[in-house]
Amino acid sequence: MNVTCTTLFKVRKEVGTMLALNLATVAFTGAGSLVGGYVAHSVHVIIGALVVAIVCRSLWAERHFNRELGVPANSISLGEIAVTLAFVLLATLLPAPAAMLGYVVVYVTFLFLNKKDLLRYVRKAVR
Question: Could you write out the three-class secondary structure of 11-54?
Fold first, then answer.
């Protein structure tokens, strides 16, 4: 999101859209923090709200630009969500060395499952 979508928002002079998206993200994060802190008394709920807000912001921005630029949708976004979820779960549930090993396995699997798309992007970038 920060590398591609933020740059595209600025270049395409859609800073108003980016502001609205960021304000919605802050509002969701604030509401999640209040619920997590005062209702659930759980830092895990707060962190979960932060992660959900950031993921939703990224997905919305990506879909927005796919639509605007006529780029067909793909399944990589679902894979990105799965990789993110795996990272959070592994980091939370396992000791650091085991979590790192597990995440490497998850990430290599993600790359393998998307190798056709990744190779196509690399070939376009090299040209």
Answer: HCCCHHHHHHHHHHHHHHHHHHHHHHHHHCCCHHHHHHHHHHHH
